[in-house]
Structures are given as structure tokens and as C-alpha cells.
Amino acid sequence: MSDAPRPAATADTVPLRHAPRLMPALGKGVLTGIGKRPHPDAALPPTRLVLSAARIDPAAVAAYARLCGFPAAGPLPVTYPHILGFPLAARLMSARAFPLPLLGLVHTGITIDQRAPLHLDDRLELSVYAEELRAHRRGTEVVMTTEARREGRLVWSDRSTYLARHRAAADRAATTPGDAPDAPAGHSPDLPVRAEWQLAADLGRRHAGVSGDYNPIHLHPLTARLLGFPRAIAHGMWTFARCAAEAVPPGAATLRIGAEFRAPVLLPATVSYSQGPGEDGQGTAFRLHGGPADRPRLHLGGEVHIP
Questions:
Q1: Quick one: which of 8, 93, 137, 262 has the fewest CB in 10 Å?
Q2: Quick one: which of 29, 44, 39 has its CA closest to 131?
Q3: 132-171 burial by CB neighbour count: b if 16+ within 10 A, else e?
Q4: Per-position b or e across 96-122, b if 16+ CB within 10 A of its CB
């Protein structure tokens, strides 16, 4: 987790004075996605959006921390810069030049590197760009990178993968995360259960309220059915944040945490959180399961490493 130099400004760097509004970006993405034909060999626009001083609202952070299980006081939750940066990512992905349709993209994985603790009074410079496209056995996946700098120093970064599902070549190799039908590599299948959580039917609406992500698949059974889900589903970032709140020890200043999203959590639901040593013996593995005990369904699997 060494410091990365600040990238040189180019003609493709777009400075922003204010964070984009998320919902207009999502709405635009519905329109610009019409007619797009995803392909891993498509060109990615080189645009890098840079917000010089992201505003952190203490009341919004407190509400987010309560919903996701983070301590009420202390450093910024490790997942919160993703919430700050997502409107920038949505603006990039809603552009007509972006090769994948925003509507229907599935969040398949995330890795966060935190190099220093973050605080409510930080004025973070956020930059977001599309890093690469790659083949996935179910379609095409894009890697979106978010970086946070404090006084010019890289203190936090996030690489998230999003999948556009479409018919792929029959001989395409499955080389990307979130791909396998079974437990992800590096995660023991018999981690001890540490907690059981009852998730209410309105969890998606409550998380939308603290994150700004009002995707209709999370809000109500009727709107979820329009997009192919039998009921509203929990935000993947809520499941990841809730697991991170359990897996990251209080006071951890630097860390790497990552997860692969597997099956969606249909709301309401009862889920079990498991945690134990990682397969390499150096990290902590965690998993989130749902369904009956004799047929558990893996929703998420990940690991956290603390230097």
C-alpha cells in the first residue's frame, strides 16, 4: 500500500467544483444506454473527474454509520469515501461515450486500500476514472477506480468492478472475480458464524437515504420486478459495509479490505455473518450467507488485511 504519485493533469482531466447530483446521472444513464452493445474490446473514454474538496456532512456520516454498524464516533467509516465518489463514477458511466449501459450494471467486486485514517473535517480531493474493460464469462466487466487525496497525498483508493451481462463467447475463460459458482478462492468454507442479522423490507430505502443511491431494484418489490428481481434487494455496498464494520478492528489505521459479491439479498431476509482466519493465515476472512441451514446461499465473501 505504498503512496502513489498524483497523476499529471491532462486534457482529459475534468475538474469539478461541486459533486455531481447522483439521481440525474442515473436518469441520464438510462437514456444514453439505449443501443449500446457491450464488448471487452471497446474503447474506454480516458476522462478523469476530479473534485478538489469533497464536502463531508457529519450528520450524513452519523446516519450512514448507524445503518451500517460502524461506531458512532471515531474515524470515517472505511467504505464512506466510496459513497462520496459514486456520483462521479455515475457521471462517467452515464456518458454516451462510456461503452457499457449504466442501467443493469451489477457490482461484482470491490477492493479498498486505506493508507491513513480519515476524519470528518478532512477536505478530500476525489478522482474517479475507468481503468479497464475485461472479458467475463457472463459479459463484459469494467474496473472503476476512485482515489482520495489529503493535501496531495493518496490516503484511500477503491477499485470496483461492474458487470454488463450479455451473451459471451462460448470459449471465454472465466478470469475475473465474482465469477465462480462456489466459494471464492482464499475463503474457508467452514468459518464460524459470529452473528445473525434480520434485514427489514425497507432496508434498501433506508440505505438509499444515507447513500443517495435510489436504484429502483432496492426500493420496492414492484420496481424491483420491473428489472427482473422477485423482491427488492439490499445494496451490495450495504452488505459490504456491514461486514466491514464487523471485520475491521477498531482503530485500524491502514488496511486492505476486499470482497466479491455473489448472490443478491432479497428483502426481507435473515443472513448469517461468518468470520475467521484467512487461508494464508495472515488476514481475516468473512462471509455473508442466507437461506436455510441445509442449503445456505453465499451472498458475499471477502478478506481484510492489516499491516
A1: 8
A2: 44
A3: ebebbbbbbbbbbbbbbbbeeebbbbbbbbbbbebebeee
A4: eebbbbbbbbbbbbbbbbbbbbbeeeb
How does DSSP classify residue 266? Answer: B
**Residue 162 · residue 105 · CB < 8 Å:** yes
- Smallest CA-to-CA distance from 232 within 248, 215, 212 is with 215
The rounded distance, in Å, linking the Cα atoms of 282 and 279 is 8
Which residue do the cell numbers 451500517 mark?
A: 68
Residue-wise DSSP of 133-170: EEEETTEEEEEEEEEEEETTEEEEEEEEEEEEE----T
Degrees (nearest 5) of the Cα angle 182, 100, 16?
115
pLDDT in tens, the chain (307 residues): 555 555 555 559 999 999 999 888 888 988 999 999 989 999 999 999 999 999 999 999 999 999 999 998 889 999 999 999 999 999 999 999 999 998 888 899 999 999 999 999 999 999 999 999 999 988 999 999 999 999 999 999 999 999 998 886 644 444 444 443 333 433 445 799 999 999 999 999 999 999 998 888 899 999 889 888 899 999 999 999 999 999 999 889 999 999 999 999 999 999 999 999 987 778 999 999 998 777 889 999 999 999 8
Residue 281 CB neighbour total at 10 angstroms: 6
